[in-house]
Amino acid sequence: MIEIEGIGRRFNTRDGGSFEALKDVSFSVNDKEFFSIIGPSGCGKTTLLKMVAGLVKPTAGRIDIDGRTVIGPGDDRAMVFQQFVLLPWADILTNVGFGLELRGMSRKESRDAARPHLEQVGLTRFSEHYPHELSGGMQQRVGLARALAVGPDILLMDEPFGALDAQTRQLMQEDLMRLWEVEQKTVIFVTHSMDEAAYLSDRVLVMDTHPGRVREILDVPLPRPREEGVRRSPVFNELTSHMWRELRGMMGDPTAPAPE
Amino acid sequence: MGRHRGRTHEASNSGVWEPVVTHQGEPSIASGEPYTAEAERTMTANRWIPWAFRIGSVGVVLLIWELYGRAQETTLFFVPVSSVIAALWEQVQTAEFWDAFRQTFIPFVWGWTLSLAVGIVAGLLIGRFSTFDALTKPYVTFLNALPVSTLVPIAVILFGIGYASRILVVFLFGVVEVTLNTAAGVRYVNKDLVEMGESFNASETRLFRKVILPASLPGIMAGVRIGTGRAVVGMVVVEILLVAVGMGRLILRYRGRFQSADLFAVVLALIIFGILLQVLARQVERRVSKWKYEMEQIA
């Protein structure tokens, strides 16, 4: 279980003042839960995810994973990035094994260990290709396979499909859904797409902005395994309309003082 | 120790499904575009056009040189290019030329190698650790601001006219560019790549060896190429300015005797030497940063 307790984050600004990006954020994520975080741009959702990853330190509060406080990155977590972040000089198989290589495995061993994960995302025949030869969707499959290859308990996904076109995005969502149903990992998924959040998640955290904080946490009462058809169900529509009303309220004049 | 974090670098692969052509002109799997003979002809033609211009431009200058040289009343000052080439051809058949070349070449190789080794190591440290950057900044700034030639007399006073002072001067000429370019290469490594490495819980050593070092290779190799050019300048400057040995001595002697064709020939030999080193450095650069060139093709 991931427990986020009273997290806050202040940044110092250039003019000597400070800016509060996150304020008193508390929630918890259960084991093997698919948990999404949605909110307007600048609400600090990516910062929050990076804190769970151990890449950014909170200035207040703490994050516990199975009772142990996060002080940095760990072998129990792996991240998938919006811009894929593959090594341009290495082929696909090396890229998939790169997480293992960074944890001390040799190049050869990590490539061997990467093969089944490349197969998982359906890219076996591209193992010798280079990232720039692949489409965005394929590159993100590589990013996902790289994260799965290190065998993490927790998958942290930072708007992973945000850089993809609508059709590719939908295909990727369905593939991720199937993978997750097999892999049964805890996933924290940051997105700005309401459809995506509703389709994939068990629960959705809606964040408020200026400063970033918890607005509400929604249950997604859709049955699993989820078929593509749930996107047209009344429950799905009710959920996405609700999220839209919430987000829309926050997206008024960005210079207006935040409601307390 | 504080670390430099690379600047955010917008990934060129925006995820848009674009036709991609690799540098050999092969269709990529992403586009699946047919590979037509016409496309190949266009690419081949395009590749030859810059070469045609380069050869043409050199040809015109050589022609003017030749005509102007022949129009001179005396061969004391300016000689046509054909006489220079003839003089060079004669010189390379003498033992004196090759002795001079050896005298010049040996300290050059030492100073050059040393400047690459020291420059790369210092650049890596400066680029990665801000503490090291702060410690060395005054010296790097000093060497960068100063015409290195002014250090030649000091080097000779301190180390005499033997190999040591010439090695030192070649080293000083080359080392700054290698250091600065390497440091820039490390500093501007895509910040996202570093963060990715950190997120996988990599140790500092592994992060450096597996992410930062390969990602800064293009910068390092640019430093090697520019530093090599500078080292050649240092090699000639020290011999002409103070220590009359090797190729520098030949230059001074032919100048003193108004043997212009021979003087030009020595200079031509040095130019050829410099170009060969540049070509070599560029080949290594291209090989090492192949991925970079391929990326730029589609950027």
Could you walk me through the main structural features you see in this protein, from its secondary elements to its overall organization?
- The complex is a heterodimer of chains A (260) and B (299).
- By secondary structure, chain A is of the alpha/beta class.
- Chain A has a single domain (31-41, 71-250), classed as Rossmann fold (3-Layer(aba) Sandwich), CATH 3.40.50.
- Chain A is built from eight helices and ten strands.
- In chain A, the strands form two sheets. In chain A, strands 6-7-8-3-9-10 form a six-stranded mixed β-sheet, with helices on both faces.
- In chain A, a hairpin with a 5-residue loop joins strand 1 and strand 2.
- In chain A, helix 4 (107-120) crosses helix 5 and helix 7 crosses helix 8 (234-250).
- The longest helix of chain A has 18 residues, at 166-183.
- The two termini of chain A are 30 Å apart.
- Chain B has eleven helices and no strands.
- Chain B is an all-alpha fold.
- Chain B has two domains: 18-71; 79-298, MetI-like fold (Orthogonal Bundle).
- The A-B interface holds A 53-55, 72-75, 77-79, 81, 83-85, 87-89, 98-99, 101-104, 126, 129-140, 150, 156, 163-165, 168 and B 11, 13-17, 20, 22, 28-30, 190, 192-193, 195-202, 206-207, 210-211, 214-215, 290-292, 294-295, 298.
